[in-house]
Amino acid sequence: MAKTTLTISSKNYSSWSLRGWLLAKFSGLEFEEVVTAPDDASARAEILLLSSSILVPCLRHDGATIWDTLAIGEYLNEAMPDAGLLPADRIQRAHCRSICGEIHSGFTTLRASLPVNLKGHFPGFKIWSRAQADIDRVCTIWRECLADSGGPYLFGERSMADAMYAPVVTRFMTYDVKLEPRLAAYASAIMVMPEMQEWIEAAKAEPADIEELEVEY
Hints:
Blueprint: E1 5-8, H1 15-27, E2 32-35, H2 41-47, E3 58-61, E4 64-66, H3 69-79, H4 90-105, H5 108-113, H6 129-149, H7 160-174, H8 181-191, H9 194-205
Parallel strand pairs: 1-2
Antiparallel strand pairs: 1-3, 3-4
């Protein structure tokens, strides 16, 4: 059998690479990382949100090639059913898919104005009103999920939803977005996961910076 690989781009800047990587880690699938340089055209388009059709991250497993992050999550849920990437309950599973789809296709102002930058920290960052609307919607999603599940993760146990919203958590940390206690506890639970700590350490070790994503005052 051919080896399983996950192609990703910058660990410091790439929200979609983080999502795909976490999904693979949560599933328990063993894989080899293939890192595409940030100056590669496809990787750069993905990081800078310049293309609606991106090929990173890309999972290759057992003859299948999957490059959309939601598709990666659904594929891993089928391939590794015991991992619990989607809730067992039908209604919760539908809810999980819905909020994953929402972050996958929406929140464009949040993405553009608060880009992922794990090495950065910008206290007092001025947030545009349209981005604040996206932040408020994310908080509503988290609040409702945590009220229903009891935490510590959105659906109680770790799921696809936590992988999909993990880059938003990092944005909130980077740009010092204030959260109510229950949401702050959820954000902390995401940040202290061993997988997140592994990713963050690797991100901090990356030598290259992308000037377009460095905030200036």
